[in-house]
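PROTEIN–LIGAND DATA SHEET

This sheet pairs a single protein chain with one bound small molecule, magnesium ion, given as SMILES. Inputs appear in the order they were entered. The predicted three-dimensional arrangement of chain and ligand is reported afterwards as a token string under its own label.
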Amino acid sequence: MNNNFISNYSDKLFSNIEINAKKQSLRIAFINFIVGCLWILLSDKLLEFLIKDSATITFVSILKGWFYVLITSLIIFLLVFTALKKVIAATGLLQKTNAILEVKIKEQHKAEYILKESESRLNMAQELTHTGNWELDITNSKVWASGEAFRIYGINQKSPYLPLDFVQSLIKKEDRGKSDSALKLLLENNEKYDIEYSLIRVDDGHESMIHSIAKVEFDENGIPQKVLGVIQDITMRKLSEKKIKQYEEETLKNKMEHEMARLQGLSLIGEVAAGIGHEIRNPMTTVRGYLQLLGSKEEFSMYNGQFSLMIDELDRANSIITEFLSLAKDRVVELKVQSLKEIVEHIFPLIQADGLISDKYIQLELDEVEEIPLDKKEIHQLILNLVLNGSQAMSPGGTMKIRTFMDKGDIVLAVQDDGKGIAPEVLEKMGTPFFTTKDNGTGLGLAVCYSIVARHNAKIDIETGLTGTTFFVRFKN
Ligand SMILES: Nc1ncnc2c1ncn2[C@@H]1O[C@H](COP(=O)(O)OP(=O)(O)OP(=O)(O)O)[C@@H](O)[C@H]1O
Ligand SMILES: [Mg+2]
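PREDICTION REPORTED AS:
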């Protein structure tokens, strides 16, 4: 019901009332006129006919005028009363109708307001998500499209209708077949319509990627009437997915190249170490022996301090060579099928007894893991190096966690510290022989770990952040 209709309706009502009022007034005037005329013409004759006595006639003639006024007043009263009664009843009805109309108009305004609000919300949501909707009227092949659908098409026009042929012509040639057959299958077999295609925008000719889904509406006889569909512009999503994939591929490539370089470096150093290690150790053993011998002599007693310093330094050099030797690629490993968990349990008292990690706590969380071929001595060395690094990264009172568990079929050893994490530039170089950030470090600890891990066909993953670092060693089953 719109405002025009209401004003036409009330105009008509009022003009009807006016006509009726005229009719009623004319009727009253006419009746008054006729009764007056009849009175004038007939009253004297009637008197003469009814009354023979001339004195009475004269008397009645005097009263006749009053009598006429009385009768006509009575008649006019009755006529006006009935007419006014009708007018008042009609006015009451009109007022009632008016009140109902007012309520209805208010309700209509409210409904219109709510509708407009929800339309604008829908529009906003469509704009934000780049999602438009469309309806195809099968009877006339016209497509109604929402504002956002028009934006996706790159069309600016007032009418929300477009011919189906035109909409189909916006789809990139290579994808038209796909879209046509999807629509055909939807209409003929009510098959799921869920496709992605490229669209060429009308305004700038750019290509957009579209995801479209649709369903059919049938009439009571099962004949398709309408197709209701939704289109979403997924160009940005597709682009980001592509970029993420590229980035992941590049990162993986870089990581692999880095790993290869590290392994090559390790094996080269290992080969050199194996070659010269023994040659250095033998003369060193001789020197150490003579130092010990001379140090025990009476005449050199004042140099005792210097002798033991030299011996300590030789021992330190020897331990470096020992570690260095373990980098050799073709070092013989003694693999025996055993449990990683048991190896950790075995070395744990040694770790705790070690003065290096006093004032730090170590927690064990050891799940049962499958047994695999392991070189016990090497795994001891691996755990020790990781635990030492972790403990050196922590402040006094810190807690370290050593875990064993199964993950996707892998047997995992995790050493977690609560230090400050590792800076990216350190992370990048870690494992390179002789790379260290410590004053007394040799930078061989992790290099040894990597070579042990390589000999066990395992790998090391590192997770690091401001709350600490975890080294995961994953052994394949
Ligand atoms: N858990 C860790 N937290 C923080 N930094 C670490 C951790 N583990 C290793 N690093 C860093 O990696 C570097 C190399 O470690 P690596 O064990 O190879 O040598 P190092 O500990 O310096 O010397 P050493 O030969 O005595 O072990 C360390 O100097 C340190 O900067
Ligand atoms: Mg170390």
